[in-house]
Amino acid sequence: MKLRSYICGDWFEAKDGFVDVRSAVDGRAVAQVSSSGVDFGAALEYARRVGGPALRELTLHDRADMIKRLALHLSDRKHPFCELSYDTGATQKDCFFDIDGGILTLFSFASKARCELPNARIALDGPIEPLSRGGTFAGRHILTSLQGVAIHINAFNFPCWGMLEKLAPSIIAGVPLVVKPATQSAYVAHAVFEEIVRSGIFPAGSLQFVAGSLGDTLERLTGQDLVSFTGSRSTSLQLQAIPAIRENAVRFIAEQDSLNAAILGPDAGPGSPEFDLFVKEVVRELTAKTGQRCTCIRRALAPRAIIDDVQRAVSGRLGEVVIGDPREEGVTMGALISLGQREEVRANVAHLAKEAAIVYGDPFHVRTVGGNTGNGAFISPIVLRCDAPLAAKDVHRVEAFGPVTTLMPYDGIAQAVAIANRGEGSLVASVFSYDANAVDEIVRGIAAFHGRILVVDRDCAKEQTGHGSPLAPLVHGGPGRAGGGEEMGGIRGVFHYMQRTAVQGSPSRLATVTGQWNPGAAETPSARHPFEVPYDALTIGETFRTGGREITLEDIERFAALTGDEFYAHMNEAAAKASPFFEGRVAHGYLLLAFAAGLFVKPELGPVLANYGLDDLRFLKPVYPGDTLRVRLVVKEKRPRKPEYGEVRWSVTLFNQNDAVVAQYDLLTMNATTEHVPVLREAIQAGSGGPRGGTRGGAQRS
Ligand code: NAP
Fold first, then answer.
1. pLDDT digits (tens, 9 = 90+) for 284-297
2. To test ligand 1's pocket by mutation, which of 18, 105, 156 has the most ligand atoms within 8 angstroms of CB?
3. Range(s) of the domain holding residue 172
């Protein structure tokens, strides 16, 4: 099978320069790869001229919707990917992590983007910053899409997940991309990419694919482009040294080698749940994906007094591992990606063996199941033991990217911390302990050197996702040797493809730029009560001011009796006076909220369907009996949810009779769209047995 590149909106097949990619399991040629003849300059130009503008035309939510549609599209068509993956040496479980994991990552990015980002072309970072006394000048950080191309260079180990994990934030950020999968597993990435093209979801120019070398692509990059790289540290350093990347300050996101550690706590002796969990996890990490995971536990630390027990337990479990053709029933560990990779692992084990003894496995002998495995890249799991880890160097530096780990004893927590940090920056460390103080000390000691820390104990044992499973909302990346920072994961993964800019100006201008009303910006008096206006007809800045309501002592007492809240500040005049905050008895904050709702809620069935909650509530000034409450309601932001309704964020301000602000918060409501108001009204009325009766009659009250 000759893999093609997808360039300038078309599939391109090279004429020469092909490299054979062989099955990791039986050595037969499964694909041929070449990008000879690809016009890389044209590809970059096409992405910048066609793909970028098309993506930037869409809102962040539109782009997130495309990612969700892609996730659904791939979910229905994923089975052939798994079949292909067997030839990379992956077992069924490994495929699940790569393919299902990749699709889940798409879902997660899409949903987080819709929930956490505005339905606009720019994203906001942080609140408005007042910059003047009079409130006429303020600042805000906005994030806009970079106007170049993202070059995604992926490692061989997760051809699907690795590609989708980068594709989602790039597209949501509005940046077109060129994917370059690792040659050894490019046929899996190619099959997934073919399906992405077939889906027809993305605008022209937003996605391109290079099967084979990137040619001179990286020499052509500008300051608006970026590289998102996953692979070895040596390749990463080589690429970062390319003059165009250095001189144009091209963003370079690197996810590279990582000498991750797992630490068994001093409390977790043999027989404890944490001991068993540790042993299980070390073995799982060694065998999953044949140890070719960036998160694999390369250094397993245990108290010196029980290191022999750990060694025995790990070896015992490894004895049960069945190695062979992943298509064979019962196989629990597959092959390395290639014979070349096996040579590299053997060489690195030889290197490690200068500082550590091999205590399990033989890099040159392995028993396999399956008929045709003789030419496959199989290797036994290898456990080394380094008894003086602080005196050693390479056990903390050399990554044997296969089923290889080194056991290391430690004497005391401070030493465990020092050993873990000798990795000089890792993606992940895990701590297995049920001792709160030990965990606290270890986490504080190692956090600066790690992107993620997993703490495992008996309480979370059943639901924890494991040392090697970064979940999409969390950081995937690490400091120092691991690449340099919290690169992927969560909404920050999207921000990486955007430029953060501070915009300063009047509150009204900031509101125009950000699409979000902020205090001090112009208010537009609402012609109608805003609760009568359907979602789509509401405008940002539309304002409604209520009449007043006096708060009496009787209100406070009745509220206290009704709720049981008899806090001294509401019920005891002398005590309230004596406090540093009050001059006498004050109204309950919750009473103010309830009375405010009473002032602005319209009881008739209308567009407002439900109260979704409050954000950023502050009680700023006490309210005393005799004070009069008024409310200002401003449409601050709108987020579409479904065709039938959207979410409205209202800025709610409570004033007293002197126009002083006594409380402030954001109210969230779900509001029906014009088209659906009559439908929903009818449904609610039918359910309630009439406009005022039945149990569901008050559905639109907040
Ligand atoms: P690699 O040899 O460094 O290759 C990584 C990618 O770089 C491949 O796509 C490769 O393409 C490409 N590449 C190599 N030279 C290039 C050049 N001159 N210009 C442009 N692209 C170039 O790494 P690998 O063997 O695929 O993956 C294993 C390594 O990745 C391990 O060290 C592992 O720790 C690391 N990794 C890290 C993470 C993480 O998140 N930190 C995740 C997964 C893997 P070709 O295949 O065509 O050479």
1. 999 999 999 999 99
2. 156
3. 39-129+140-256
